[in-house]
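user: At home tonight, take the chain set out below, taking as long as you need, and be ready to discuss the fold:
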Amino acid sequence: MTISMGSYHHNVVLNAQAESKQPNGDGSKMKMYNSVGPNPRVVRMFLAEKAVDLPLEEVDIMAGVNRQADFLKINAAGQCPALELDDGSILCEITAICEYLEDRNPNPPLIGATAEEKAETRMWTRRIDLNICEPMGNGFRYSTGLKMFQDRVRCIPQAADELKATAQDGLRWLDGEMAGKTYVVGERFTLADILLFGFVDFFAGVDQPIDETLKNIHAWHGRVQARPSAEA
């Protein structure tokens, strides 16, 4: 399901009541600060693949709640998602959050069950993050999303087109690497797939569609989109 910025917007604020589900029924007090956008969706998909339920406290980033003092006490970077742990400490950054969740809930393994599998997943996750997700996200912030972001972060509008092109270069390279594979890391569905899908699917609905010539990426996107976790 391709989601646009408009259709995905939650009309909620930081103090909205969190959902009442508990992770694994183990009495954990963990909760996630959630919002519109690809980054929180990555963690939600990861949780869905693990069949772990967490309370979600919604943060209205469209209204800039994440840049206000109350939320900056939670995450000084002013970003979502953020994971509040049982002891009240806060964990930020999606790969760190997913690594933590994998350690707490190792099955099914989405990073790896062996040192070799973990290293391979981290390698592909890093490549996707640097070469596709980062330029794709900044290309959006500096153009279509400029009105929202110009007073929040340093924006470079003149770099937007080149950043979008850089992301497409990364996708084109990955398309070649995906030949004969079911998922990014061969037959294993991993964090690398979730990260890539979260960004590609979101921005395809905004201003960076998947190039029709990337047949392997399109086929992969269809496989991931068919997974129940894609609805997270």
In short: The chain has nine helices and four strands. Confidence is low (pLDDT under 50) at residues 1-25. Residues 182 and 219 are 9 Å apart (CA to CA).
